[in-house]
Amino acid sequence: MTPTLVRHYLPHAGPAPRVDLGARARDWSEIQERMLVPLYEAVYERLEVGPGTRLLGLGCGSGLALLMAASRGASVTGVERSSPERLALARERLLPDVWSPRARAHTRLVYGSPRDAADAETPGYTLVTAFEPIGCLAGDAEGLGELLASATPLTERGTPVVLAGWGPPERCATSSVLRVATRLADPLRGTGSPRPVLRDDLEEVAHRAGLRPDGSGRVACPFGYADVESAVRGLLSTGLFDAAITATDQVQVEKELAEALHPYRRQDGTVWMPNVFRYVIARTT
């Protein structure tokens, strides 16, 4: 695939980095996405996701969380609005040609907003998930609020809505690595850190969306990689380093990212970073 220009949440002027979006989506799907599996499992177990569940996944990416819900018998709908390349991989996972028409009827994948996935015959969703963690980028909470505003009218009353975020920086080893992105993207801040994670970030998003908080939890989601090269590819696939690439260049970002990963490299060459993620369950009214 020919490299394509991309700009994700970039606060700086100038040309966008040249990124192979297809390769980035594959790195996300093959390396990074699985890091949040403990979060998906904890939420599905707590909410007893099963054959009676009609799930709407916001920012579904390449579809791993939806696939796990579908394996429990849930009917799943995924919407993605930032990466058609990731959504194409989700279609390969969730809508293979070998599936029967009946099986395919229980899965919908749409590029756009939640409203694009709804029609007059679509019953109300009984679960909404927003698993893409907030807490690293300025404006990510506002973007999630917009998604929720278009999703909640499509649900039944009292439907649980799950929001996820990074845990406290002192509980997330990856926080120190993410500082590379901030430092390179905004050199005037020197050793600045990512946007501070506040204790009530998720509750505040839920409140602004008109949702009623109804529980929360924390889940250990360690980031483990086969080697430093895989770790660099996986972390770059998140898009959190795009501003740094724009401000400097990809070679420098990769070099400094590899250096920041050094404390987490084990004797066998693998990379291991313990992290804690937090989720909130809120209810539609």
Description:
- The protein is an alpha/beta fold and 285 residues long.
- It has a domain at 19-170 and 195-224 and 273-283: Rossmann fold (3-Layer(aba) Sandwich), CATH 3.40.50.150.
- 37% of the residues lie in helices and 20% in strands.
- The chain is built from 11 helices and 11 strands.
- The protein has helices at residues 21-32, 37-46, 64-71, 84-94, 101-105, 140-151, 174-185, 201-208, 228-236, 242-247, 250-261; strands at 4-5, 18-19, 54-58, 75-80, 107-111, 127-134, 160-166, 212-220, 223-225, 271-273, 276-283.
- A 7-stranded mixed sheet has the order 5-4-3-6-7-11-8, sandwiched between helices. Strands 1-2 form a two-stranded antiparallel ribbon.
- Helix 6 links the parallel strand 6 (127-134) and strand 7.
- Helix 2 (37-46) runs parallel beside helix 3 (64-71).
- The longest helix has 12 residues, at 21-32.
- It starts with a strand and ends with a strand.
- The relative contact order is 0.17.
- Residues 1-17 and 188-193 have low confidence and may be disordered.
Brief sketch in words of this structure:
The protein has eleven helices and eleven strands.
Can you give keywords for this protein?
single chain; 285 residues; alpha/beta; Rossmann fold; seven-stranded mixed sheet; two-stranded antiparallel sheet; 11 strands; 20% strand; SAM-dependent methyltransferase; SAM-dependent_MTases_sf; transferase
